[in-house]
Sequence to fold (319 residues):
Amino acid sequence: MRPLSNTKPSTRLYTVDTERSPLISSIHGKCYLIDTPQGREIAYHPHIVSQELSHLCLDAAEEFAVALKELDLVSDRSGILHILRGSSGYMIDKVLPGLPVINIRTQYSEDGYRAHSDDSRRIDVTYSDYHAAMHDTLIVPDTYATGRSVEAALQYLFERGLNVKNIVIYGFIAVPGIERVHQLLTRYGVKLHIFAICDITQLYSNHYDMPIYGLDEHLYNQNKTIKPLGSIVSLDTLHDMIHQYVPGMDQPGDWSERHNNLFNGRTYESGDLKEHLTKSIQFIESLDKMNITQPWYDEHIRELTQRELSKLRSTISSL
Fold:
């Protein structure tokens, strides 16, 4: 754990030894896990949406901003890249209000909920307000699953003259997303700095879901194959997860649909909160049908599963 002077006592920053990790040993760059109570709440609980989610994101972002300043990774020559719609939900522009923001929207032409391809030809840049600029550091808050959206956005900027020394990525992050961004930045001679909220996950076979730990529910439903997945996480964080997290659940869920005020390139709009909550119920019920067949399933897992389902239903009824 790397000590920080100005963060809250509950915030923990861990340095990941990328050379020793079997999951990301090919990555050259600074890699951190930033563990906050707020980040854990967001990761574990898909029933948290709207204003409650925004408050947690803002609190987590404030701690991230403190870490950036202590590590000398932000200055008046830094900028922020928002990949619409989800990036602004991480609230980095709110905690670093003096920095210029670039907005780009990338959209999958065919994919949908819990079904992303790993094909860059299906991603288009449909909106951009970029004008040629030079930054020492560009901060890119987003959800990094395959990394295809970020790759498309950054490639678009590089082709239009973006000049930058460092890229800082922040958010919920999976291994393939890191690898994709790392490969792109290596070609352009840009240094990568990774700040993953709580953990770095593997991906389901659908290239979408990011479980902290558990079985690949998508693969199991296809052909009953049992494939356990884990993540890079500290033991302290893991100890907390065990008491709250439904094994196999995606973090952070359908991110854009959990928020109620995101910029889409034209205006601000709310995500489909009810749809997100309904799909989360269906997902957890499917997980429970799979998990209950496993020898490690016990009363504790049954109780936390039913607790999250109850909170999801209660949240729907309150909308």
